[in-house]
Amino acid sequence: MAGEQLQATSATADGEPGSIYQAQKKIYPRSVTGLFSKWRWAMVYITQLVFYGLPWLEWGQRQAILFDLEARRFYILGLVLYPQDFIYLAGILVISALGLFLFTAVAGRQWCGYACPQTVYTEIFLWLEKITEGDRSARLRLDASPMSVKKFARKASKQVLWIGLALWTGFTFVGYFTPIKELGVSFVNASMGSWETFWVFFYGFATYGNAGYMREQVCKYMCPYARFQSAMFDKDTLIVTYDEARGEPRGSRSKKADPAALNLGSCVDCTLCVQVCPTGIDIRKGLQYECISCAACIDVCDTVMDKMNYPRGLIRYSTQNAVVQGWGKSQLLRRIFRPRVLVYTAILLSVTAAMFISLALRSPFKVDVIRDRTSLARIVSGGKIENVYRLQVMNATETTQQYRIAATGLPGLTLASESTFTVDATQARGIPVTLQLPYEAASPGSHEIHFEIEALNSPGRVIEKSVFLVPR
């Protein structure tokens, strides 16, 4: 209705209008060192070495990993896949999903904390931010200070590094779909195609925005994994836990003070576990869907415990059952082999085995038989009945192959066209094939026959069914 407006405001306690949307404060994660921090950086090195390095590897005379969408061929080391091999992509997706279910049921969200691209690139961007702007306290002071030449220089240098890394990431991503050396030459000469240019900048912008600015918002609000993880968790799933029985009541004290005399637990309420958390949660409040199991809080808490001469493990990897019932490591490990985990493992192994067996038995060439629709059957000289076909032969190997055709299924059936032919490496070729049959060798109607195509240069034989028409 006219004059009415929907406003995103609500009344506060004193009657003043206020926003209905919660203000999001920027999170400034504190740097942390420790065992799990080293593991996290090890995963950063490994994943980025693989991602940035694979497109530059060669296999024979081509790129080792290349998804050539224009030619509709996928090259994976010595394997060449075609659109007809889509079932293998489905198999990879199923294996990945089952692997994620199994890993989550056993170890929680450690994929998120160590190997997820969002976590990995956020870690790299935070490192670049630390180089240019300083540690957490320095960044807080810098953002709170008015604009100056020094502040502008630091912010600008950070942006240059962020944008450079983001564009290099986008370039590498496109290098999996366009030969990266050719792409590099085109990039230097400013002659990249429109689609290559679009995807380099699109993926670069996504990396820049997600890792530079959105960070924990992606994990908390955009990633569906955080929402359905509860379906894969149980009380025996490994999570980051705070030992409330040992830590409470929390409170500050001197290093020499006896916590028992002060009626305090081991937690000194330093809030360092909150300051190092990349998603800004307080692990002392229990299991929360925002927790990505990165264990930064474990590293920093163990450091505080060492300084206070308290035992480590106030915050640790454990399970809800283990914490409540006081289990040791042996009991915790035994609970890994529970029914859910065993079922996931059995299904995963079965699907993986089936896929690898299928790949091992995969024919090195494919054949489709197409009947000539312009002339289904005709009588030719010599009183013979002739049917014409077209064999579409696809060579799935990377060497030129020679093939031989034979036809069986009816007595007196002969091949009236060339019986041998060649197909270039990773190419397809249509072969016209003519079959002839003596006039009275079969009754009128449709008769099943079989084409046998044999590779002469390498082992392989394909049998395809078709029909031979005998007119009345």
Short key terms for the protein model shown above:
472 residues, alpha+beta, Immunoglobulin-like, 5-stranded antiparallel sheet, 4-stranded antiparallel sheet, elongated, disordered N terminus
Short description:
The protein has 472 residues and is an alpha+beta fold. The protein folds into 3 domains: 35-89 and 99-224, no CATH class; 230-341, no CATH class; 365-470, Immunoglobulins (Immunoglobulin-like). The protein has helices at residues 35-53, 86-107, 110-114, 117-133, 136-144, 149-174, 180-188, 194-214, 216-222, 225-228, 244-247, 272-275, 296-308, 320-325, 329-334, 339-360; strands at 9-11, 17-19, 58-59, 62-63, 65-68, 73-76, 79-81, 239-242, 315-318, 365-371, 378-380, 384-395, 401-408, 414-415, 420-423, 428-438, 445-455, 461-470.
Counted up, domains total: 3
Number of helices: 16
DSSP, total strands? 18
Mean of residue pLDDT values: 87
Low-confidence stretches: 1-15
Gross morphology: elongated
Structural class: alpha+beta
What is the radius of gyration? 33 Å
First-residue to last-residue Cα separation: 78 Å
Q: Sketch the major β-sheet.
A: 5 strands, antiparallel
Strand percentage lies at: 15-25%
Helicity range of the residues?
40-55%
